[in-house]
Amino acid sequence: MRGGLKVVVTGGAGFIGSNLTSWLVQHPAIGRITVVDDCSTGNTALLGADLAEIDFHRGSILDARLLDAAMVGADAVVHLAALPSVPRSVADPLASHHTNATGTLQVLEAARRADGPLVVGASSSSVYGAQPNMPKAETDRAMPLSPYAVTKLATEAYLGAYHACYGLDVLPLRFFNVYGPRQQAGHAYAAVVPKWIDAALSGRAVPVHGDGTQTRDLTCVDTVCRVIAAAITDRVTSPWPVNLALGTRTSLLDLAALLGDALGSPLRLKHIAPRPGDVPHSQADPTRLLGLFASAAAVPLDEGLARTVAWHREQRAATVRAGGGR
Ligand code: NAD
């Protein structure tokens, strides 16, 4: 790390946060990185050798004093910490609200007390919910279908309000299904790509909720990291939410076929009941994103999936080498 910018990443021990932290460690304009994470769903092991390059604060974004300490001298805060799951929020809406909505408010309050860092916040395509327009533009009305989606709508709305009321520089980004290396399988709320890779590598059938014709704008984590790094170095701001996806559309059945190619053998599908709160189709209109980040580009899905499969294979091999078996 050579440059002068200090960046705080909340949720930096999670999937997107650990990828972003590694990206920022390599970035010539970034001088210091501080991660705040309570490791409730994340894990410092995801940071690997980069852990030695950063200041790691283990604790909650609900702890104002911890946030104040982390934000001293910060030029930017990338706020990713959250309980990031629709079904988890359906099972326990209050927990999702505390971490995602109240937690965002705590991060914004700390940013206000600090010397006005740019706050980049993670919202979600789930805010569109029942909105029938395709592709989804930020001007379409948000119609959330789950408590999780409501907490993400609160997140982006709080960022906009802190810009309007306190002049804070903000950038609320709506992530669409992000996938890539370091996304964890093996827990009840795992996302579709790691869950399916894990099932296939274990010789199990992969569970498909509904008929599999649902579509998603699958976004490689590298695309997300590249955009956020540019937002930090060029101080890109927007009081209004910005879709962070390039407008691709892949059905779950097509995803299964592509994963079969990446794995070298077709997946065995097991169709199960649709999930409450899931949205049927999701595809971004990237016009606003490309207006702010002309160089934002999609990683080809087959390439991103191949690297993701390779990471899962390496994890399994490492577990076996360590004597853990699988
Ligand atoms: P993740 O679970 O891997 O990462 C979240 C991190 O936040 C974890 O490391 C967890 O330990 C930490 N965390 C949770 N509660 C915390 C607390 N109270 N204090 C401090 N840290 C806490 O999830 P992810 O997929 O990397 O998601 C990152 C962000 O992106 C989330 O805000 C999520 O809502 C959003 N998002 C993700 C996707 C996606 O496809 N992965 C899509 C839309 C939005």
Summarize the structure.
39% of the residues lie in helices and 17% in strands. By secondary structure, the chain is an alpha/beta fold. The strands form four sheets. Strands 3-2-1-4-5-6-11 form a seven-stranded parallel sheet, with helices on both faces. The chain has a two-stranded parallel sheet with strand order 7-10. Strands 8-13 form a two-stranded parallel ribbon.
Largest sheet: 7 strands, parallel
CATH superfamily of the largest domain: NAD(P)-binding Rossmann-like Domain
* Terminus-to-terminus distance: 37 Å
Instruction: Tell me the fraction of residues in β-strands, as a range.
Output: 15-25%
Enumerate the strands of the largest sheet in spatial order, edge to edge or round the barrel. Answer: 3-2-1-4-5-6-11
Number of domains: 2
CATH class of the largest domain: Alpha Beta
Summed up, the helix count is 10
Small molecules bound in the structure, each named once: nicotinamide-adenine-dinucleotide
**What is the number of E strands?**
13
Question: How would the blueprint of this fold be written?
Answer:
Elements: E1 5-10, H1 15-25, E2 30-37, E3 55-58, H2 64-71, E4 76-79, H3 86-91, H4 93-113, E5 118-124, H5 147-166, E6 170-175, E7 178-179, H6 192-201, E8 206-209, E9 215-216, E10 219-220, H7 221-233, E11 242-244, E12 250-251, H8 252-263, E13 269-272, H9 287-292, H10 301-321
Nicotinamide-adenine-dinucleotide (NAD) binds at residues 10-11, 13-17, 36-42, 60-62, 80-84, 99, 103, 122, 124, 175, 177-178, 191.
Characterize the structure shown.
With 326 residues, the chain is α/β, with parallel strands linked by helices. It has ten helices and 13 strands. The protein has two domains: 5-176 and 221-244, NAD(P)-binding Rossmann-like Domain (Rossmann fold), CATH 3.40.50.720; 192-213 and 249-320, UDP-galactose 4-epimerase, domain 1. It has helices spanning 15-25, 64-71, 86-91, 93-113, 147-166, 192-201, 221-233, 252-263, 287-292, 301-321; strands spanning 5-10, 30-37, 55-58, 76-79, 118-124, 170-175, 178-179, 206-209, 215-216, 219-220, 242-244, 250-251, 269-272. Helix 5 links the parallel strand 5 and strand 6. The longest helix has 21 residues, at 93-113. It is globular. The mean pLDDT is 95. Bound molecules: nicotinamide-adenine-dinucleotide. The site of nicotinamide-adenine-dinucleotide (NAD) has 30 residues, from helix 1, strand 2, helix 4 and strand 5.
